[in-house]
Design a protein that fits this description.
By secondary structure, the protein is mainly alpha-helical. The protein has one domain: ABC transporter involved in vitamin B12 uptake, BtuC. The protein has 13 helices and 2 strands; from the N terminus they run H-H-H-H-H-E-H-H-H-H-H-E-H-H-H. It has a two-stranded antiparallel sheet with strand order 1-2. Helix 2 crosses helix 12 and helix 7 packs across helix 8. It starts with a helix and ends with a helix. 42% of the residues are buried.
Length: 341
Amino acid sequence: MRDVRERLRAAIRWEVGLVFALAAVIVFGVLASSQFLTSFNLFYLDLSIGEIAIMTLPMTLLIVTGEIDLSVASILGLTGVAMAELFKHGWPIWPAMAAAVVLGAFLGAFNGFLVTRVGLPSLAVTIGTLTLYRGVAQVILPTDTISGFPTGLTNIGVIPIPGTHVPYSIAFFAALAIVFAVVLHATPLGRAIFAIGAGREAAFFAGIRVKRIKFWLFVLSGTLSGFAGVLWTLRFSSARYDAGTGLELFVVTIVLLGGVSIFGGRGTIAGVVIAVAILGCLQTALTMDLVPAQDQNIVVGILLIASVIVPNAAAVYRRARVRLRSAAARRQSGAARVEAQ
């Protein structure tokens, strides 16, 4: 129980730090451009991060269990190409969109099968399928692009919800984030996910269906990556095999920056939501400050490394403090016994 309380306090402290970091990024954005906080700019800020944000949610659950899915961006690209090809060959757009999401679920299930049934490490599996899925997309659509989607649907990707300045993708993300937060933090399934990340064998002997839960989390990751692929294709009103290339780096960076431990067993949806806002604001501020795209990637890489080092260094520091306090308490107890004698 003490360990749980300590983890909760650490998570709260990290999230408070993220709020201050977000405030600092907003100040930087305002200094970079007076247009930073305009409704027009905030709309396009949200628009640019929407699909990435959606993919962070299942990634959060996977990393909490100690697994990872690096194929999410390739699934986004392949499902977008599949939807476009079906539409090109006469499918109505809505069935084509549904088929793309189902394909995403199937691709996630393939990842889950290799990890949970074959017993391969998820890092190796999803690095492999990252290349495999992107290669399949390139075979289907080598050099061309497919466009000509119904205007009513492509508008969803580039206009806000009527009466607001909120893109549809961010509205989907907000609704899903609430569902994921409730599941992860207020249900037996969420407690099982944390238990798996804290100790796989202990969770198994406690009666938790470890393999089944992990498998379905991979399916969920593929499904929402497929959904993100549909939104991405509609937003750009075209499909290409290289759509979303490199987005897996941003997804993992956001999740780790949000306080989810790369070793599993710790993390919150609230922290990930704040991290989404930080990365979106930072990218926009850097762009408005005329920072080149390659330099922005350097910043993202630094954030990724810091997101791994800082929480683990803090955990080592906390454990050292606990050991020092225990040692001091034992010395005081020993001294008291000597005085009593």
